[in-house]
Design brief:
424 residues, globular, Aspartate Aminotransferase, domain 1, alpha/beta, four-stranded mixed sheet, seven-stranded mixed sheet, Aspartate Aminotransferase, domain 2
Length: 424
């Protein structure tokens, strides 16, 4: 029997196909073998600050002792059970706790597996709501540059090239409107009116305040609020995809807390389990749920997946919420907000930096690079050389650190940024 090659990076290149990697490029992925707090360690003895919370999913740091303990305890009791026709305590406890945290109008939790499936549930829930009410509403309004997942339905309500024509064979249509800013707010509101009068809109889905995959594009709460009010005027179901923005990222538990009104549906995922495993949750208002209660409408909301409401995932999510109850935890979030603010003020004066912006613990900016090609591979490499993990989006650099990131480690991230700016 042949001896197993101990060079995991070489074996990775031979056997694994990674997303977002040009397959013809000669790149080597670092083999991460351990994590602790804000740091990740590879098999070559290198350590890196996780400045992006592993893509926005990690809240409290890697290998958090409380979450580890809770999952270990759950493993000895129940690792998995069916969820259609059955339930389990962790799913019930988590639903109760989420509904206490969400706005008062939220009344039910529908579990799924991840962001894409949470959005798929919201789409099906909205379309079936209108079908149950015998109203022919099959159009969704979406903000330009929004991203809502990679499955077919979720991707169809994400912004990309010629999406409206490419997906016009679906059971619903998608119409895009610009991100609201001061100069276009009135025209965007009129656009909603026009779309609804022509198509009878079913729902408006949006990333509240921060468009993550579009390079951390940010918009003000008061402008988004006006769009929601206009949709409410036309009785359009409003859907907030908080897969990235929930659980303190914007300085509030949910980004929609910055608004003066509450959406009908919330999509939660990604950081719901603090980065431990996949879980999706779609909450809905009593208004939406009541649209499914008539006996003459026997059709159920069908969206069951193999690992829906996994006891282990629910346990991780409950442990994450338990950590938020610790006395000093909100202070940690505020500390990061203030550190980002100070560094943002400095960056605003830097000649190689533009469009500095911040929302809570999220800091983003563009680096001026005289290069028409995608600069993200170069930027990622330069930061990695300095012991910092980022995932640049073209020439956009963003930081969204775990809440356990110390002031010293934040200073390391900022120092690496200034060092990279000297060589770019």
């Amino acid at each position: 029997m042949a001896e197993i090659d101990k060079n995991y990076s070489r074996r990775d290149k031979m056997a694994v196909w990674h997303s977002h990697i040009r397959q013809w490029e000669k790149t080597t992925n670092h083999n991460i073998i351990r994590g602790k707090g804000a740091w990740l360690y590879d098999d070559m003895g290198n350590r890196f600050i996780d400045a992006i919370s592993s893509g926005g999913v990690n809240l409290h740091g890697h290998a958090h002792p409380l979450i580890n303990q809770r999952i270990s305890e759950q493993l000895s009791q129940l690792e998995y059970s069916p969820f259609t026709g059955f339930t389990h305590p962790k799913a019930i406890d988590l639903a109760d706790k989420l509904l206490r945290l969400l706005p008062d109008n939220q009344g039910k939790i529908f579990y799924s597996n991840d962001e894409s499936s949470a959005v798929e549930v919201a789409i099906k829930m909205t379309l079936q709501y209108w079908k149950n009410k015998a109203e022919d509403r099959k159009t969704f309004i979406v903000l330009e540059h929004d991203y809502h997942g990679s499955s077919f339905g979720a991707q169809s309500v994400s912004y990309s090239f010629d999406k409206e024509n490419a997906l016009n064979h679906l059971d619903f249509q998608v119409k895009f409107i610009p991100m609201p800013i001061q100069n276009n707010l009135e025209s965007v509101l009129l656009k909603i009116d026009e779309i609804h009068k022509e198509y009878q809109v079913a729902g408006f889905i949006f990333e509240p305040l921060v468009q993550f995959h579009a390079g951390m594009r940010m918009h003000k709460a008061e402008y988004l609020e006006q769009l929601i009010y206009r949709c409410q005027k036309w009785n359009i179901i409003t859907i907030a995809n908080e897969a990235i923005t929930a659980f303190g990222r914007t300085g509030a538990m949910f980004a929609c807390e910055h608004l003066g009104t509450s959406p009908d549906i919330f999509c939660l995922a990604n950081s719901l389990t603090a980065g431990y495993m996949t879980l999706g949750a779609t909450s809905c208002s009593a208004k939406v749920f009541h649209g499914f209660l008539k006996r003459e409408q026997p059709e159920t909301l069908n969206y069951a997946q193999s690992y829906t409401a996994s006891p282990l995932a629910c346990t991780a999510a409950l442990a994450s919420l338990e950590i938020f109850k610790q006395d000093a935890y909100i202070e940690e979030i505020i500390r990061i907000v203030y550190k980002h603010q100070a560094f943002a003020q400095y960056l605003q004066t830097h000649p190689q930096v533009e469009n500095v912006r911040q929302m809570g613990t999220i800091l983003a900016f563009e680096i001026k690079i005289d290069n028409s090609e995608d600069s993200s591979p170069l930027l990622n490499y330069r930061f990695l050389e300095r012991g910092v993990i980022i995932q640049a989006i073209k020439n956009t650099v963003y930081f969204i650190p775990p809440y356990c990131t110390s002031n010293e480690d934040l200073d390391r991230i900022y120092a690496a940024t200034l060092s990279v700016l000297k060589v770019i």
